[in-house]
Amino acid sequence: MRDAYVVGAGQSDFGAFPDESYRSLFRTAFEAAVASVPKGFDPAAVDEAVVGTLGVGGRQLGLSGPAVTEHVGLGGVPCTRVENACAASGFAVRQAVQAVRSGMADVVLAGGFEVMTDASADATKYWLGVSGETEWERLSGTTFAGTYAQMAGVYADRYDLPRERLSQVAAKNHENGAKNPHAQLGFECSVEDAESAPVVADPLTLYHCCPTSDGAACVLVASEDVVAEYADEPIRIAGVGAGSDRVGLFQREDLARIPASERAAERAYEAARIGPDEIDFAEVHDCFAIAELLAYEDLGFCERGEAGDLVAAGATERGGDLPVNTSGGLKSKGHPIGATGAGQVVEAFEQLSGTAGERQVAGATRGLTHNVGGSGGAAVVHVFEREESEEVGA
Amino acid sequence: MRDAYVVGAGQSDFGAFPDESYRSLFRTAFEAAVASVPKGFDPAAVDEAVVGTLGVGGRQLGLSGPAVTEHVGLGGVPCTRVENACAASGFAVRQAVQAVRSGMADVVLAGGFEVMTDASADATKYWLGVSGETEWERLSGTTFAGTYAQMAGVYADRYDLPRERLSQVAAKNHENGAKNPHAQLGFECSVEDAESAPVVADPLTLYHCCPTSDGAACVLVASEDVVAEYADEPIRIAGVGAGSDRVGLFQREDLARIPASERAAERAYEAARIGPDEIDFAEVHDCFAIAELLAYEDLGFCERGEAGDLVAAGATERGGDLPVNTSGGLKSKGHPIGATGAGQVVEAFEQLSGTAGERQVAGATRGLTHNVGGSGGAAVVHVFEREESEEVGA
Q1: Is the peptide bond preceding residue A203 cis, with omega within 30 degrees of 0?
Q2: Whole-model pTM?
Q3: Is B209 in the active site?
């Protein structure tokens, strides 16, 4: 089984861009990924492409993978669109790893995109709803804020979580996002701001919720056989794990955890032969502040019920023991559905390359990304490790 | 690189099933696939699932992969939805091969489904249109019949093709489909019937066009390490190839060929280390009769301009030198978008297992499937070989 490496990663700004198309955003991300490759990159090297998108708005619902790859000059290259709701491009990266490990490709482009902000409020509600269970959630009026509010309610009740902990997640992620030039909500938000914001779905206030976003992100994955052409200290994809679960929240036994994340994390740690205590930083799927707290527990960063303590102690701040969402997360950086998973890998790449600027985690050598589809119908976790040059291919 | 094998494949009937859901159709296909495994199969062995669907009607547009796999009892198994328009599940099978060859899975379920017949005519037009180029095709009113009619017009003009050749394709495929219990249009259709049917988009008449269909199909792919548990004479996936192209027809240089198919075929033959003359039978993407003729040429079954002669000579009939679409093809068996690619593999599996009944091609040991997305924005080709028991894992 050949090892797979991230040799480049880049993204567009996340935000509201009425003058951009999904194609132009994807091109921006692709060009940023190409420019990030330490030793240079010729796009003609791409053997295959995998593109994640939900297809919000239905602009190019079929064949949207080839529609964006042709636009960046990869018209003849095999391209597959993958979709697992908000985890679409996390799964695209996983598929790129499989393509490389299978021996069927040496260099694979994994990317994602979404354009959401030009839809009407009703259309946005529809398009977000399509990732919930249809009959018993979407058609009965359940929104994602409502779904995660139910999870927050169960969690808060069981573990006596004060709402302030949710606000601390938001404040931390905004503090990081304010240092990320690509962030959609790149401003600071205090705990008090989050506490006093209008309630969207009790207990979640406006600042406990990620925005709707336009954006794209791209990751270049290469095999151990060719990685030396692109980087001297490449970033190895040490572990990959995925899991799924019942799509409908009402079909799950326990709303205070996301079993798909647990399964994905277990498989990723096993593949990387490490435990959660060996992770230096993580990008987790904080579509709502409660989701970040659940992730701490699902990923094994703390015991059940202790996530609130972790954030209250500052452990997951940028200067803490285990910085989480140094990019700003979905909360502050933004959440263009199909771009989010690949966008998390962009942050991991920058942190492990030492190019994260003001957001840099000192001495980061191993990072994790965690991407969830819907309310937990699917999840994917990756573990990344920076290698020293003498170790390549060893 | 580990070899991958098809150890089971099955499908639901294709047709109009107002009392079925996408989940129940998928379950029927999954159970048929499980029942087809020569030495028996425990669904708990499935390590991963890949599901192709376009999502016509938007019932469960996000997370539709986990939504169907949970319904067949695979709720925790990693599942990815893939979509490349009408080639969705052909690419799902390809992805299953990559998963097995990567070493990340031993047994993978690759399936697909679509429910189309309960949509209104306008909705069906929209949902089929989404696989065309949006701005310059769908929104300007181009339908797929219109797209393929343009290709037929260019081809007929260049090579002086009489419309009768299109009708001969239809008659041949209906003759096969009449022997397939799963076929939607399982009746015979004479050349005269096809000639005299109403024109849908000149030169294509009604019987030159496939129907809209509901249905599902599933394929079980296993690694060489475990294949002996399932079959003594397993069917090896000897070659896999994929290609893409400009999504919009107007962006292509030549309308009388599908370059994505040529690229996919070239890669599949190279991987299988064979040429087109070593294929015993083929399932090709005949969404419109002209598409089958283009496929003959794109797949190398004959020279450019000779496809009409091939069908006229009866070479691609069931008793001919190279039987094509013994299942009835999309034309007669039906074309539930996301199920079609996996459904082609069902026919290849039955032919190579000697279980194709009245449709059996005598002595078939090597078959090919060819699945196209849209008007050729993506294509995927597989080559399958029946192995003798002593060769397994060799």
Answers
A1: yes
A2: 0.97
A3: no
- A114 three-state secondary structure: strand
Q: Pick A378's closest partner by Cβ from B63, B98, B242.
A: B63
Tokens of B41: 């199969």
Question: Domains of chain A by range and CATH?
Answer: 4-119+211-391 (3.40.47.10)
CB nearest B83 (choices: A62, A95, A102) = A62
Query: How many residues are given for chain B?
Result: 394
Largest CA distance in chain A: 57
Q: Residue B141 corresponds to which tokens in the numbers above?
A: 């009113």
8 Å CB contact between B72 and B42: no
3 state SS of B233: coil
Q: Which of A64, A71, A80 to mutate to test the interface with B (most CBs of B within 10 A)?
A: A80
> What is residue B90's DSSP assignment?
H
Residue B201: strand pairing partners:
B204
CB–CB of B175/B190 below 8 Å?
no
> What is the residue-wise DSSP string for B8-76?
EEEEPPPB--TT--HHHHHHHHHHHHHHH-TT---GGG--EEEEE---GGGTT-SSHHHHHHGGGT-TT
Which amino acid appears at position A29 of this protein?
A
Q: Would you state the structure tokens that stand for residue B392, as one six-digit string? A: 């397994």
Instruction: Give the pair of three-digit tokens for residue A316.
Output: 């997951």
Beta carbons within 10 angstroms of residue A153's beta carbon: 18
Structure tokens at B67: 């939504």
The pLDDT value recorded for residue A207 is 98
**DSSP assigned state of B209:** B
The torsion angles phi and psi of A125, rounded to 5 degrees, stand at: -60, -40
Pairing of strands B48-52, B79-83: parallel
What was the ipTM of the complex prediction? 0.96
Bridge partners of B50?
Answer: B80, B110
Neighbours of B132 (CB within 10 A): 26
Q: Answer for the pair B47, B108: CB distance below 8 angstroms, yes or no.
A: yes
The whole-chain average pLDDT of chain A stands at 95
Tokens for B303, please give them: 């020279």
Kindly state the tokens that stand for A30.
């692709």
B256, B376 contact by CB (below 8 A)? no
Residues 6+ away with beta carbon under 8 Å from B19: none
Q: Chain B contacts of A61, Cβ < 8 Å?
A: 54-55, 130-131
Give A254's strand partners: none
Optimal mutation site among B21, B47, B61, interface A, most CBs of chain A within 10 A: B61
Cβ-nearest to B78 among A62, A103, A242: A242
Q: Where are the beta strands (DSSP E) in B164-228?
A: 199-201, 204-205, 215-223
Burial class (CB in 10 A: 0-12, 13-18, 19+), B29: buried
The secondary structure of residue A209, as a DSSP letter, is B
Token reading at B65: 């992969």
pLDDT band at residue A390 under the 50/70/90 scheme: low
Return all residues near B250 (Cβ < 8 A) that are at least 6 apart: B133, B136, B137
pLDDT tens profile B126-181: 888 888 888 888 888 889 999 999 999 999 999 999 999 999 999 999 999 999 99
Answer whether the bond into residue A323 is a cis peptide, omega within 30°: no
Q: Please, are residues A329 and A1 in contact by the beta-carbon 8 Å criterion?
A: no
